[in-house]
Amino acid sequence: MLLQLLIGTVVVSLTIIVIAAFIGAAIYVLTKIGNWFVSPPQIYKSLLSGICAANGLLLFRLSTAFLVEFFRRLTEAQSKRAQNPR
User: Fold this and answer.
1) Looking at the whole model, is its pTM more than 0.90?
2) Domain coordinates of the chain in residue numbers?
3) CB of 5 closer than 8 Å to CB of 65
4) Cβ count near 31 (within 10 Å)
5) Between vectors from CA 4 to CA 78 and to CA 19, what angle results, nearest 5°?
6) Closest among 29, 50, 48, 51 to 38, alpha carbons compared
């Protein structure tokens, strides 16, 4: 389960990096067209806010996955203990 979680985290992280690279390339191209099209200070704020949002989603998913796995193992241990009392 942990290996699957780590692989999923790596895949999502790589996806975010690729998207950030495409956004950065789009920002570069659009600012070369002219400052009237995209204002540079706002661009970095929007890029950072998108990355922060993606980071929040990753952390939320990761902590949720750990909690679900913890409670699954806890209930499994409790059921084994109930079946084999000392």
Assistant:
1) no
2) 2-79
3) yes
4) 14
5) 135
6) 29
